[in-house]
């Protein structure tokens, strides 16, 4: 399950308010950014679940896979901002 922190809720709320204010709904760039933000939020939730597995002593992924996966948020954030 995805755990929404207060900071994440504030960012989501302000982003949606800004989208309504700008009238961005239906524009291609906004749909792409919104899709990436939703995917990044899901990724954060998945990583939280994976962190709990690590805390319980299970480690289902290899080191190389984990190193690659740590780059996903940075790349996604750069794409979202640009």
DSSP helical segment count? 4
Shape: elongated
Q: Could you give the order of the helices and strands?
A: HHHH
The counted number of beta strands is: 0
Helix content: over 70%
Mean pLDDT: 88
Q: How is the biggest beta sheet arranged?
A: none
- Our estimate of the beta-strand percent is under 5%
Low-confidence stretches: none
Structural class: mainly alpha
Distance between the termini: 29 Å
Radius of gyration: 15 Å
What does this molecule look like?
With 82 residues, the protein is mainly α. It has four helices and no strands. The radius of gyration is 15 Å and the shape is elongated. The two termini are 29 Å apart.
Compact description:
The protein contains four helices and no strands. It has helices at residues 6-22, 28-55, 63-69, 72-81.
Features:
82 residues, 4 helices, elongated
Structural topology:
Elements: H1 6-22, H2 28-55, H3 63-69, H4 72-81
Helix pairs in contact: 2-4
């Amino acid at each position: 399950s995805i755990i929404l922190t207060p900071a994440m809720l504030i960012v989501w709320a302000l982003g949606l308010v800004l989208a309504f204010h700008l009238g961005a709904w239906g524009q291609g760039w906004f749909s792409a950014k919104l899709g990436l933000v939703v995917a990044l939020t899901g990724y954060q939730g998945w990583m939280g679940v994976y962190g709990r597995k690590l805390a319980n002593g299970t480690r289902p992924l290899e080191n190389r896979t984990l190193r690659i996966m740590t780059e996903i948020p940075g790349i996604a954030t750069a794409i979202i901002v640009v």
